[in-house]
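Course assignment 3, question 2. Fill in each field.
Student: A.L.
Task: Predict the tertiary structure for the chain below.
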Amino acid sequence: MDLDKISRLIEFVGSSRVSELSVSEGGVTVRIIRQSTGASEASLAKAATPVEHSTAADPGPPQAAINVERQVAGSATITAPSYGLFHRSPSPGAKPFVEVGDVIVEGQDLFIIEAMKVFNTVKADRSGRVTNILADDGQDVELDQVILEIA
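Answer field:
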């Protein structure tokens, strides 16, 4: 794959809402991931260099419709599984899945991330009490952005 084609792919990802793109041609796979830090196209272009099997602009984890949980000072954080629109309730005008202070159980629905008209319901990986909701309903969120804190 030539550098001109790779450059056009980087420009496409940078100017669209696409957050990840993989293209294979002639035994070479180029993987471009939009950095959630708002990196410029120039820095993405410097990071995307063809290698034998793959190229990554950001070697971070691939997007997946799962929630990521991290322990932070005795509490856990639930992060966005992908870039998208954060929804606190199952439908407009409906009661939110959880509120600050609610006691939740493992497997309980917490929120929805809408990405490209696909609605991913994020479930609790543990039981606990919601101590903070860090995103507003309808807000655009980034991959791995902290959404909820649970104690």
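Instructor remarks: The two ends are 49 Å apart (CA to CA). The first helix runs from residue 3 to 15.
Grade: pending
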